[in-house]
Amino acid sequence: MWKGGSEVKIAILKDMQMERKMDLTLLAINGDKEAFSSLIQENKRNLYRVAKGILHHEADVEDAIQMTILRAYENIGKLRVADYFRTWLIRILINECKSMLKKKNRTVYLENMNQEAVSYTDTYENLELQEALYSLKDKLRIVTVLFYYEDLSTKEIARLLSIPDGTVRSRLSKARELLQKKLNENRKEQ
Prior knowledge:
Helix content is 74%, strand content 0%. By secondary structure, the chain is an all-alpha fold. Helix 2 (33-54) crosses helix 4 (85-106).
């Protein structure tokens, strides 16, 4: 049996999947609600991971995703290149998350001022890593989530965030350094 046979099959399947996504995206751009819904279903895990990486509370994550879907639905006709649907959708989500963070920073919750910690349920396996990730500044956390959770390249992240590729790489480097430092501190405390 030819060794490259399985590789060819995988490549053909990937091409078919890409064509299907392109077809769905084009249908959605032209107003097909079912196609838009299918695209959202295919991307819901990506949306959740990115939102969870930026926002701390589950309710905020859900709100950001809902607003993202609504904004995407309202603006799908403005999407110029069907290939970029996922990137476009994530960009909307990032903007929504940033907007929510700005609103939260302007609001002081009096009932929480005397509490040291707010408890919430988190389904992540590595809470120590999540805590370290949340300790990063927004600009470092966003590139880290996109690179490690969404497997976007530095060039894709640069295009998505409208920043130079070198800036993405330096933010990733700084984030790795800070995460390592935070995780080492946590281990010393235990």
